[in-house]
Specification:
2 domains; 12 strands; 5-stranded antiparallel β-sheet; alpha+beta; Gyrase A, domain 2; Alpha-Beta Plaits; 7-stranded mixed β-sheet
């Protein structure tokens, strides 16, 4: 009997070809990689549970709770503020179908402090870096990206063209930016990023 085992398919599979794009001469100004390795879940604070949620995240995962637009990290875990009382939790430490157990692990640790929704596979996430990444992003998002305003550890909900996106800079990677959107908009986001990066030369790496 044929092996019918199914494996997760990344949101941008087939839409982000590895290799050089745009300007071909010189070193690439922008590097792009799809973060297809992430487990994801949303957290929504329950009434009166602010302190309990902060303690549960710190004790269970070593994660501090961002109370305003920003993000925190601990090992393979990241927590990104996505609105008052709401966060996007990410885990890069799980492989294949094990990623789909992340939300259950969160819910078990947090108890009644927050509502947890599994978003694994429901977001397209790009990692962006390179000397021209800030100039490239300035073409896409209508917010101030200056280092004094948007340093490592910063996050924002904004627009990239017609798409709502979450943009953040992990506090543990000074040269990296991450941008995420709904899976259904992923192809459009990848196209817009490659278009905006073309003048600087863009190197796309294989999905992580």
């Amino acid at each position: 009997m044929a092996d019918l085992t199914m494996l997760p398919r990344s949101p941008l599979a087939g839409h982000l070809p590895p290799g050089r794009h745009g300007r071909a001469d010189g070193a690439p100004g922008v590097a792009v990689t799809e973060r297809g390795d992430l487990a994801a879940a949303s957290l929504a604070l329950r009434a009166g549970q602010d302190a309990a949620l902060a303690i549960a995240l710190l004790d269970g995962f070593g994660l501090a709770l961002p109370q305003r637009a920003g993000c925190t990290a601990a090992g393979a875990l990241e927590l990104v503020w996505t609105g008052p009382g709401q966060w996007l939790a990410l885990d890069a430490g799980r492989e294949d179908v094990a990623r789909f157990g992340f939300a259950r692990a969160l819910a078990a640790q947090l108890g009644g402090a927050a509502s947890v929704t599994d978003l694994t596979g429901a977001r397209a996430v790009l990692r962006l870096s390179g000397p021209a990444v800030r100039e490239m992003l300035a073409k896409l998002v209508p917010i101030d990206l200056d280092e004094s305003v948007f340093p490592p550890g910063a996050a924002a909900l904004t627009l990239a063209g017609h798409m709502g996106v979450t943009l953040w800079r992990p506090p543990t990677a000074e040269d990296a930016w991450h941008i995420a959107c709904y899976r259904s908009f992923g192809e459009s986001l990848a196209h817009d990023v490659l278009e905006a990066a073309a003048e600087f030369g863009c190197e796309v790496s294989a999905t992580t």
